[in-house]
Amino acid sequence: MTKKQRIEAFIRLGEYLLSDKQCLLQAVDAAYQHNAWFTPANVHKALHAAALNLTEDKLHSWLAPYPFDGDCDKTAGLVLAGNIPLVGFHDILCVLCAGFKLQVKPSADDPVLTTHLLSKLQEVEPRFTPRIAIAERLQNFDLVIATGSDNSARYFSYYFGRKPHIIRKNRNSVAVLTGKETSSQLMQLGSDIFDYYGLGCRSVSKLFVPEGYDIKTILDGIAPFSDVINHHKYANNYDYNKSIYLINRESHYDNGFLLVKPDDRMASPLAVLYLEEYTNTDTLAERLRTLAPQLQCVVSIENLGVPTPVVAPGQSQLPALADYADGVNTLDFLAAHR
Q: Does residue 31 surpass a pLDDT of 90?
């Protein structure tokens, strides 16, 4: 296949992701039945985010620097995460656009959507059919991209370490408030916190605020997201963490659907947002530089001069094609081992 043919196939797939075709709606419903976190609203949000990048201009521009014309005989193995819907789609896109054969192990939490989209991709471009395999266990592959937790990363390193690899671990995202945010920007920040119930590595798990910041400001700003508490799994986490804080008499803020707790750590429990004050932007920038290996992105209205990508409020869950997970350029990796 040529690069042009692969691009055209993904453009057609993008059009399908935005459609209301019955087979797609059935897959969305099946994903929710399999995993209660994958509500139809969240799945459609993920489908829309993926489709935004599957346009002719964006795909051509993204792939332009790479001589990926013609097929490659090598097989790339993917071990996908399943914390949010279609979290592994970008890796699938990279591997196939680079001309590799694809062997993919979907997450047990997200097998329905991944399988459906690969099936649809083979339908719109049959030449992909012999080049895509879904596997319970990877075998006979030439390189691997594996995504999981810090614990699973040790397992991946043991089994895949002798092959060319990208192995991803836990990451979190943070937001930096300055006190200059508008009410609209604070509401948009709610999307960065609550989209996918905060389960993604691009979900904001911590706020940095200037000393003396009135927490009520942000709590009022995110009030439109109160419906999140109606999800039983989210509510269970909220109730559990609230009871722990009350029993232990730990200081925290509570708006009825989110707990905000002063804490130096990065990875907050579900339904909890950690809070840390900063004295000035210089010390904050230094703190963020130190934390860079743990961060996926930073949400802020300011250019903070840090190595971690900084995005505007409301944009953390809408990464562009070149916004690579963990800052590792997947296409460069594939090009080096083609």
A: yes
Write a three-state SS string for 206-272: EEEEECCCCHHHHHHHCHHHHHHHHCHHHHHHHHHHHHHHHHCCCCCEECCCCEEEECCCCCCCCCE
Global confidence as pTM: 0.95
Name the class of domain 3-170. alpha beta
User: In which residue are the tokens 């810090």 written?
Assistant: 150
Q: Which amino acid is at 20?
A: D
Instruction: Flag whether pLDDT at 190 surpasses 90.
Output: yes
We find that the CATH architecture of domain 172-311 is 3-Layer(aba) Sandwich (3.40)
The separation between CA 135 and the C-alpha centre of its own chain, rounded to angstroms, equals 23
Q: What separation in angstroms does the CA of 296 have from each of 91, 261, 311?
A: 16, 21, 11
Check whether 157 has a pLDDT greater than 90: no
What CA–CA distance (Å, rounded) separates 290 from 307?
A: 10
